[in-house]
Design brief:
The complex is a heterodimer of chains A (158) and B (231). With 158 residues, chain A is an alpha+beta fold. Chain A contains three helices and seven strands. Chain A starts with 8 loop residues before the first helix and ends in an 11-residue tail after the last strand. Chain B is of the alpha+beta class. In chain B, the strands form two sheets. Chain B has a seven-stranded antiparallel sheet with strand order 1-7-6-5-4-3-2, covered by helices on one side. The longest helix of chain B has 18 residues. About 28% of the residues of chain B have low confidence. Classes of the chains: A alpha+beta (158), B alpha+beta (231). Chains A and B meet through helix 2 and helix 3 of A and strand 3, strand 4 and strand 5 of B.
């Protein structure tokens, strides 16, 4: 079998077993918070993106999953998690949260040639981590884009 | 980021801070519990702001009792903040370099912007916490040790150079040494205060008469206990 190369391998190989053997190639729908319009910068892991700086206190925060992409298994879960993270922040941090994470949700159709994912965590809004293969361009795999907020500023909870 | 007024001369030494776990975590720590090894005090690192270069953290003490109430959802983040045992609030700005938190200056704020107060409706959520068992263990351990603040005040020592008397003595709270009450020595931090010549120990109120070897033995035991605790 041909070994497929992962993006950001120079960071991943610093960890033992990263990503772990639990990560598999998947064919599934995935939902990710993005800006609109979508660009490749919407698919940069938090510990690699330079601005804003990753939230790190010490080396233990440089964990394997922080070099992957956060995704959700359903639109409802992705909005609910966004709402929860948004609400618990202070007012100015809410504005920063929108700047950092965007206020749209992209629907992606992941296929086995795109990368490796772990199982959605039912205890955490169906969150899962995705590690892209080197050639993958997720910004080109977006099928739909949903606005997180309604025009009146309320959450677009369907 | 908010512009803070702070005192450059009032820094918090975080070199003996041990990270216990994150009470809130999403793509990085948001509210993290630390223990200061010398004092046993618990501190929170509370992420409050960022710009293009730095993440800003408030650092303040939290009492084990109120921390337990927080993780039991009896009090909010704001109440936990307002019930802190010491009013001092420090901050540190950490950039995107590869250094750990203790490499950055930690300064005492003169006043805190309203925007930095926690939300009153922000409560602990188990799904955001990545090490609840360890956090609970440390909090409960801290509760049992910390019957009063006095037990954790610094222990200072004096040398008494008089024949037939104890050569070293240890007591709590140097600022109030004439009125302080002796407590069992449980602390690991010793500082040479002064040398008293020809002074009877009985004239120094608040002196704890443990011998130096006894204290050193306890110090070693405490270090072993901490080492085991974090294995």
């Amino acid at each position: 079998m041909t070994q497929k190369k992962l993006k950001h391998i120079q960071y991943l190989e610093k960890f033992k077993d990263c990503p772990s053997s639990d990560f598999k190639e998947v064919d599934r729908d995935a939902y990710r918070w993005t800006q609109n319009p979508i660009t490749s910068t919407d698919f940069i892991p938090v510990n690699i993106i330079g601005v804003p700086p990753a939230i790190i206190l010490d080396d233990t925060d440089k964990m394997c999953m922080a070099y992957g992409l956060s995704m959700f298994d359903s639109l409802k879960n992705s909005i609910n998690k966004y709402q929860k993270e948004y609400i618990k922040r202070r007012q100015h941090q809410r504005e920063q949260f929108i700047q950092d994470k965007g206020n749209f949700i992209a629907l992606l159709k992941l296929s086995k040639n795109d990368g490796l994912a772990d199982e959605p965590n039912e205890g955490n809004f169906g969150h899962f981590t995705f590690h892209e293969y080197y050639q993958t361009e997720l910004e080109k795999k977006v099928l739909n884009l949903y606005n997180i907020f309604l025009d009146n500023g309320d959450f677009n909870i369907q | 980021m908010e512009i803070l007024t702070f005192n450059n001369n009032k820094q918090l030494d975080t070199s003996n801070f041990i990270r216990i776990g994150d009470l809130s975590h999403f793509e990085g720590p948001l509210l993290t519990l630390f223990e200061e090894l010398n004092s046993g005090h618990l501190y929170l690192f509370d992420w409050v702001d960022r710009d293009e270069r730095y993440n800003r953290w408030l650092i303040y003490r939290a009492s084990p009792n109120h921390l337990l109430n927080f993780i039991r959802n009896k009090i909010s983040h704001l109440e936990l903040f307002e019930k802190r045992p010491e009013k001092d609030i420090y901050f540190t700005d950490i950039d995107s370099g590869n250094k750990s938190f203790y490499n950055y200056g930690t300064f005492k704020t003169e006043s805190l912007p309203k925007a930095y107060y926690p939300n009153s409706d922000n409560y602990f959520e188990l799904s955001d916490c990545n090490s609840i068992d360890k956090i609970k263990t440390i909090i409960i351990s801290s509760l049992s040790k910390q019957k009063s603040e006095n037990e954790y005040s610094n222990v200072y020592w004096v040398s008494v150079q008089k024949r037939n008397e104890v050569k070293s003595a240890y007591f709590n709270r140097v600022r109030n040494k004439l009125t302080s009450i002796p407590y069992p020595i449980r602390h690991t931090n010793y500082r040479h205060l002064l040398i008293l010549v020809n002074l009877s120990l009985n004239n120094i109120k608040g002196v704890n008469f443990d011998s130096y070897p006894t204290v050193k033995k306890r110090q070693t035991q405490n270090k072993k206990q901490y080492a085991n605790q974090y294995n």
